[in-house]
């Protein structure tokens, strides 16, 4: 029985961790916190290179925290669905970049070697945006390799600028149209998720969070004292009524019924809270499956 209890607790802990990391914002929080501590450690190492690395890490961390503030826009009806659209477009962009990177390497390596990876990417990447600074190299080279490089440049610009980028625009348009039709439902679900997330959190910010904990402790103590006083009152009334019986010889059950009603109301409130949490978890999992 003890091993079963421990396995149940371990399983519930794993489920809680899994549910926590299903949210994109929670993943972003973990990354931002880790980068913050890494940057602080580098800042306090008495080496100039480590100090510079700490500044770089903290600058990235600050950018992540600014992005994290977008979470507050999920409750806005006009901006909330747009965040979902941006997330879906980034998801489309990941698969596009895999194909795009293959074409960049395939074209860039024909001019430079693998010993110059930076020039391979720069030479091929900026050609997409019209920065064709190396075109005069092909025009002045009348050898066979010059004509070959020029033909490869034409094929690369045709495939990437015309085919792949139009494919990316079509993917973005499809994602936008698909989510725009459900914008109202997406906003309502995001608002509900945001309310459920912050419902059990303290009301005060971090420096004054002890006030919220003190209020919760006071409420918990008063609840325990109230339940204890109710139990004592029921026992006292039972003791008083113990000697007084009806003509049929039956005891009066009013105090017991009063005690059961108070316990039943508390259990119903606890059951409703657990039920709402389970419903929120199921809907979040269903929404993730529906979107992805």
UniProtKB/TrEMBL annotation:
GO terms for cellular component: plasma membrane. This is Ion transport domain-containing protein. It is found in: Membrane. GO terms for biological process: metal ion transport. Keywords: Membrane, Transmembrane, Transmembrane helix. GO terms for molecular function: monoatomic cation channel activity. It comes from the Eukaryota. PANTHER family: TRANSIENT RECEPTOR POTENTIAL CATION CHANNEL TRPM (PTHR13800:SF1), TRANSIENT RECEPTOR POTENTIAL CATION CHANNEL, SUBFAMILY M, MEMBER 6 (PTHR13800).
């Amino acid at each position: 029985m003890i091993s079963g209890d421990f396995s149940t607790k371990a399983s519930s802990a794993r489920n809680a961790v899994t549910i926590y990391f299903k949210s994109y914002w929670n993943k972003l929080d973990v990354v931002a916190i880790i980068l913050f501590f890494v940057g602080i450690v580098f800042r306090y190492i008495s080496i100039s290179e480590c100090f510079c690395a700490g500044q770089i890490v903290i600058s990235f961390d600050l950018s992540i925290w600014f992005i994290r503030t977008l979470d507050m826009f999920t409750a806005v009806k006009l901006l909330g669905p747009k965040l979902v659209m941006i997330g879906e477009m980034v998801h489309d962009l990941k698969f596009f970049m895999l194909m795009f990177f293959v074409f960049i390497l395939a074209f860039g390596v024909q001019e430079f070697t693998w010993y110059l990876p930076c020039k391979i990417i720069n030479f091929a990447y900026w050609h997409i945006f019209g920065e064709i600074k190396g075109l005069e190299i092909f025009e002045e080279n009348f050898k066979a390799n010059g004509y070959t490089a020029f033909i490869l440049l034409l094929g690369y610009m045709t495939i990437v600028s015309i085919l792949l980028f139009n494919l990316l625009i079509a993917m973005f348009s499809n994602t936008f149209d698909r989510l725009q039709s459900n914008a109202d439902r997406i906003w309502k679900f995001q608002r509900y998720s945001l309310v459920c997330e912050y419902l059990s959190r303290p009301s005060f910010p971090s420096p004054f969070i002890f006030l919220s904990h003190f209020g919760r402790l006071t409420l918990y103590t008063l609840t325990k004292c109230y339940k204890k006083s109710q139990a004592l009152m029921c026992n006292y009334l039972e003791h008083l009524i113990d000697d007084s019986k009806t003509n049929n010889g039956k005891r009066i059950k009013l105090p017991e019924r009063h005690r059961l009603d108070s316990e039943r109301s508390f259990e119903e409130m606890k059951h409703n809270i657990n039920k709402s949490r389970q419903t929120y978890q199921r809907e979040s999992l269903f929404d993730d499956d529906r979107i992805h």
